[in-house]
Amino acid sequence: MLLELNNIFKWVNSGNRRIFLLKDINIQVEEGEFISIMGPSGSGKTTLLNVIGMLDNFDEGEYNFLEEPIQSLKEKHRINLYKKYIGFVFQAYHLMDELTVYENIEMPLLFKKYSSSERKALVGDMLDRFNIVGKKDLFPTQLSGGQQQLVGIARALISSPKLILADEPTGNLNSKQGEEIMELFKQLNEEGVTIIQVTHSEKNAAYGSRTINLLDGRMIKD
Amino acid sequence: MFRNYLKIAWRNLVKNKLSTLINVLGLSIGISACMVILVFTKYESDFDSYHQRSDDIYRVVQHTEYPEETLYWNTTAYPLAEALRNDFPEIDIVTQTAGPASREFSVKNEQGEVTLYEEPYVLFADGYYLETFDAEWLAGDRNTALDNYGSVVLTEYLAKKYFGNDISNYGSVLGKTIMLNSKDPLVVSGVVKNPPGNANQRYNMLVPYEFFKENNPFFTSNWSGNYQGTTFVVLKNEKLKEKLESAIAGWKKKYLKPEDDRRISYFLQPLKEIHTETLYGSIPGGYTMPAGVLRTASLVALFILIIAIVNFVNLITAQSTSRSKEVGIRKVLGGSRFNLIFQFVLENIILISLTLGLSVLMSYFLINELNGFLSIINLKLHFGWEQIGLVLLIGGLTVLLAAIYPALVLSSFKPIPALKNMVVFKKTNGLTLRKSLIVFQFVIVQLFVIASIVVATQMNYFRNQEIGFSSDAVVTTSAPEFNKLEVYRNALLQDKDILKVSFGSGPPMGVNGYSLGTSFRTPEQTVEEGKSAEMKIGDINYLDFYDLELIAGRNFISNKNRFDEFIVNEKLLKAYNWTPQEAIGKRLAINEGEATIVGVVKDFNNHSLQYEITPCIILNWNAYQNNAFIKIADGSSRTLASVEKTWNGIFKNSVYNYEFLDDSMEKEYLVERLIFNGFTILSILAISIGCLGLLGLMSFITLRKTKEIGIRKVLGAGLLDNVTFFSKEFIFLVAIAFIIAVPLVYYAMNMWLQGFSYKVELSLWMFLSGGVITLMIALLSCSFQSVKASLADPVKSLRTE
């Protein structure tokens, strides 16, 4: 079991009213799964993804990641955990504009203890794999959206995570670019990487092995 | 990893060229200005502190009490030193000096050619002087150099001037002879390094006091007079000072005449206070710098530094909020808080290092400029490691403030809101702080601007004030030989461009620190009832030459070896409530003798305009007519050359010097001009730092409000609406600053103006124009950015979000 959420609640207080963002979420994810989270705007998809990615806290419930109880871990420990096992892909790519393609991909390694030759080798592999060796010295603004998202995925993969969390990875792309990205996810999943994606599109959800539907913070069908 | 940080830091600085430039420039201007002011105040407050015993040295000063006023002298009667030395063995050292004074020297070179020099800084000093005051000896023996009657100690500067620039061994100068006034040989017995510029008694040459004494037997044995003699004492410790002062109070009757003993008292003034105490005035070749001015200057330096740092912190914090996305990415990718702090601090350290480098260069340059600019007060500011160290310290402080604070704020962002640019700042708090910082800056800017306006108005007033005599196109030269005056006059008048010539002790307004003092009374009054007056000697042309208006009586008929006639000013009549007509024919006694009043002139400014008109007596005396006044038709070089040629033909044994009277009078306002220049420079500095800050802040605000402007434009707002939208707030802040600044500057300028007898009234326009000028400049620097933002395509600005 890769991770497990039991009775997760998350809320914000507005005046004397409590607004639930997540309500009684229960999910088990095995290694190698490809899960799609779907639901209308404001249903809590991204919030759920951020909770899984440990970027956001929850107010009640249990979250075990590789047998570790996240709710009782210190922040530092939590950072180490997601640093090691989780990669993120964003709808808006979130590349650093000041860094080249090469440097963007290299960045996660800088926060871990890799020697510079190891980093070189790893980034080199990644550039090869995505066929973007020729673009390594360009800056993100010089790339198309699809190419930027490729770099975003390469960056997420560089530290060989067990889990990729993708928040509408094709949302800013045209349909052809979107298809290519989804194919790539599928391929990665076949290589053994667990993927959880948030998506609006049934077509993209079809790439996954399982779909979780949310409405108003509650799971309606598993 | 470090390289990556450096790379990002550098790319960020380059990417934001404008704000980097503003940051670096603003802070370095601030630091350099602060540096220069500090170097200046340190220099000014360290006068004479380089002597080993500077804490133990005291100058003897004299207070003379008259019925209506007390006169404060920094000089004392010449015999005082020797008497103190004989009667008070508890004093370590007593030394007597005379001067510094101007003398003429001739030096013969190896080819036998004689060159004539005029040396304005000749100090007569006894052997004790060398024990009291330190100098760096290049040749000769400190213990004996002034012991011989005919010896002379030269500074390096004079040694080179007299014996050639290429001296390598100063020992070779020892034993050479220079001639004083072409008749007295003086043998060089020592060469010292040029004393630092911040020494009170400026000298280029030391001549034994014995020599002065021998040649001036009357002055140097006279206890009643007060000429150019200064006495210094060295005490073992501070406690002795008061004991000695009270001992002297009881002792002085042994030497002073009874009436002098009642009037005169002596005090000991610590050496280190001489330069900053204005009570006793300055000594020839020197100037005093009021301690208040130094304190104000240091405060101003501090203010400028604070504005600059505040600006820097303000801008850095403002800019860093636009980097929340970067923080988000780094955190999501596993960057710890420490990584982020390190990144931001490093970036700012690079920025600050650039700034510090620039500041050191700028300060160095500015100090050199200032030394040249203020050469008139012999300024020799020095910029060394001590100052660089101070810059680094200031830099370190700035790093702490400007780098660490934003880094802490930034690194505390939660990754997800940061990525979405949704970080919520404590809005009200941050904004009021930022606003109050802007208000603070503009208070200071307006202080400086309004102060400059007031000082400029006062200076202008000085220039245009009616002074009661005509000073246009008057050239003064010396007239060293009395028996040749008529020859000189007639020779000068041969030139048709020379209109009038007169001789006297000095022009109607005392210039160059030179005036003759005396006291006056009626023959029936006692000496104690005498009042102080200024004495002028003028020939029969004097009144006509200067257009001094006679309101009663007549001019002199002739000058006499024994004066017998006075012309007095109206002010003097007030002492006896005489009308001008009543005064004619009255007898007056002055220190120099008795005579009859034959004329009364309308009051004229016999002192520069900081001071009141004082009673003035003009004598028909042949003595002291050592200045020639020449009225010329034009200031052409031909006329001046003609004067020089005539002069050289007649006074062969002296060095020719001339000065325009207007220039000499202008010099009396030296300190005021310095203050004016200082304020002008400070205003420009404060304005530029303040405006750079505004510019930077505006560029940040417009960036944040791009979307808002887009929406306003879509809804139909025009360019003017948008610019007003941005400027409104700043106008408000400048207005608040104005309200705070006005009472402060009113108080300060009112105090400053109190120091003048003739002064302008503070009026509303000075304050208003200061406020308007500041507002215009502030608006200009604001609108630069807001116009740019308002012109942007709204579709584009709305899409960027």
UniProtKB/TrEMBL annotation, chain A:
Domain of life: Bacteria
One of the record's GO cellular component terms: membrane protein complex
InterPro entries: AAA+_ATPase, ABC_transporter-like_ATP-bd, ABC_transporter-like_CS, MacB-like_ATP-bd, P-loop_NTPase
Keyword entries, A-Z: ATP-binding, Nucleotide-binding, Translocase, Transport
ABC transporter domain location: 3-222
MF (Gene Ontology): ATP binding; ATP hydrolysis activity; transmembrane transporter activity
SMART domains xref list: AAA
Family matches, as Gene3D superfamilies: P-loop containing nucleotide triphosphate hydrolases
Alphabetical list of Pfam families matching this protein: ABC_tran (PF00005)
Family of the protein in this entry: Belongs to the ABC transporter superfamily. Macrolide exporter (TC 3.A.1.122) family.
PANTHER family per the UniProt record, alphabetical: CELL DIVISION ATP-BINDING PROTEIN FTSE, LIPOPROTEIN-RELEASING SYSTEM ATP-BINDING PROTEIN LOLD
Protein name: ATP-binding cassette domain-containing protein
From TrEMBL, chain B:
Subcellular location: Cell membrane
Highest rank taxon of the organism: Bacteria
Keywords on record: Cell membrane, Membrane, Transmembrane, Transmembrane helix
Keyword Cell membrane among UniProt keywords: yes
Name of a matching Pfam family: FtsX
Domain called ABC3 transporter permease C-terminal: residue spans: 299-413, 681-789
Membrane topology annotation: Multi-pass membrane protein
Segments forming domain MacB-like periplasmic core: 20-248, 449-639
Gene Ontology MF: a single term: transmembrane transporter activity
Residue spans crossing the bilayer: 21-40, 297-317, 338-367, 387-410, 436-456, 674-703, 730-749, 764-784
GO CC aspect terms: plasma membrane
Cross-referenced InterPro entries: ABC3_permease_C (IPR003838), MacB_PCD (IPR025857), Macrolide_Exporter_MacB (IPR050250)
This protein's name: Uncharacterized protein
Organism per entry: Leptobacterium flavescens
